[in-house]
Amino acid sequence: QVQLQESGPGLVKPSQTLSLTCTVSGDSIITSSYYWSWIRQPPGKGLEWMGAIRDSASTYYSPSLKSRTSISRDTSKNQFTLQLTSVTPEDTAVYYCARGGSWWLADFASWGQGTQVTVSS
After folding, report:
1. pLDDT at residue 79 above 90?
2. Model pLDDT, residue 68
């Protein structure tokens, strides 16, 4: 039984970097062949897949966010992280980490509960 938990600041100032951590239990990010992903939902909008890291450490990013997104991992802690640079108020959203068989949202069966991040000065 896999569990995922997001953590990080709930408020980020414009132009700064948004940093979140996903802590995984019940599965290993280095041995389990999944897309360990970050997904977000802005207010009034749909879910948006941002990017993922695989057990091989290969990373994949949404084309619309690739220039600002970096996903990495800490294998000793079974965690993976999100960094989103140069944030604006449009980046305000609920951010989720999730495990899925592909980048397609329908293939994500395991989710964290989500964490609200607000971009504001």
Report:
1. yes
2. 98
